[in-house]
Amino acid sequence: xxxxxxxxxxxxxxxxxxxxxxxxxxxxxxxxxxxxxxxxxxxxxxxxxxxxxxxxxxxxxxxxxxxxxxxxxxxxxxxxxxxxxxxxxxxxxxxxxxxxxxxxxxxxxxxxxxxxxxxxxxxxxxxxxxxxxxxxxxxxxxxxxxxxxxxxxxxxxxxxxxxxxxxxxxxxxxxxxxxxxxxxxxxxxxxxxxxxxxxxxxxxxxxxxxxxx
Length: 213
Ligand SMILES: [Mg+2]
Hints:
By secondary structure, the chain is an alpha/beta fold. The chain has 2 domains: 18-29 and 86-212, Rossmann fold; 31-80, no CATH class. Helices cover 34% and strands 17% of the residues. It has 7 helices and 10 strands. It has helices spanning 30-40, 67-80, 91-98, 115-124, 139-146, 160-169, 201-212, and strands at 18-21, 28-29, 44-45, 56-57, 86-87, 103-109, 131-134, 153-157, 174-178, 196-198. The strands form 3 sheets. A 6-stranded parallel sheet has the order 7-6-1-8-9-10, sandwiched between helices. It has a two-stranded antiparallel sheet with strand order 2-5. A two-stranded antiparallel ribbon has the order 3-4. The termini are far apart. Residues 22, 24-26, 157-159 line the site of magnesium ion.
């Protein structure tokens, strides 16, 4: 079974560029995978706000699921469903190219019991990079990582609070936002003047190439 990698275990090249990359809605289509999972368990997802549990319903009901039921589904998903996620188009190829000149670290917020499914999914889909299983806002961790190289560093995530946290803790790290789910994208909080916003990897890949050059 894979072991959790801690920040001190992580080897970062002291003068290479560094890419710090989230998983859900960046490399993996989380919403569509989670939607399949909840459907198999008799619930439905209606994406009408930028939220997770508040988009889950019992069929025919207008009130979304209570938090406890939603959270239980989410936790179970990371136990036995998170291997069934579609990869985001173009991400694996773009990172493979970028990894010839930059270090790549996966920084994902997921429960501790997600370790096996998450590492398994990443290696199955061509994302064989070291992974830190994280919780909470990512800024302080990004600062710790970026301090260990003199090269340029980039952070890619779908969630504005993580990008804002990165900007506050480690302003020198360049920030990029992508929300892979086309239903969620128009509902997502963004700040394109502060964090480069991309719809897909066809523009994100070249933007990262330019940022690590
Ligand atoms: Mg994410």
